[in-house]
Write a structure and sequence with these properties.
Blueprint lengths: L5 E2 L2 E2 L11 H13 L3 H15 L2 H4 L1 H15 L7 H21 L6
Antiparallel strand pairs: 1-2
Helix pairs in contact: 2-5, 4-5
Length: about 110
């Protein structure tokens, strides 16, 4: 099993826990954490985002509506990562939201 890279002694993966509030509050904590990461860690997070986003609309459109909005917010703190991956991740998220709009998927999960 591959271990997540770390910076400053903390994992790059999400740091929030179930008792840290609702989903929106937890994702805000995770964004604040990754915002302080070095560019290399942000690049890894971008690759992870691309991998996870690729087929989510097809597999779970209802959750994809929430997930894609979270990822668009996350992209704002990942701009110091690889610019090509950032553009790819942004395009995937925006295309996913467009596809959901075509499917008329509700954005409340």
């Amino acid at each position: 099993m591959l271990e997540s890279p770390s910076f400053g002694g903390e994992d790059v993966k999400d740091v929030s826990h179930a008792n840290d509030g609702n989903r929106a509050q937890r994702k805000a904590l995770d964004r604040a954490h990754i915002a302080n990461a070095p560019a290399a860690a942000k690049t890894i997070k971008l690759a992870d985002l691309i991998d996870n986003t690729t087929s989510i609309v097809a597999h779970d459109p209802a959750f994809a509506a929430v997930y894609l909005q979270e990822k668009i917010a996350l992209l704002e703190v990942l701009k110091e990562g690889d610019s090509t991956l950032w553009e790819q991740a942004r395009a995937l998220a925006l295309n996913g939201l467009s596809r959901l709009a075509e499917l008329e998927v509700c954005t409340k999960y």
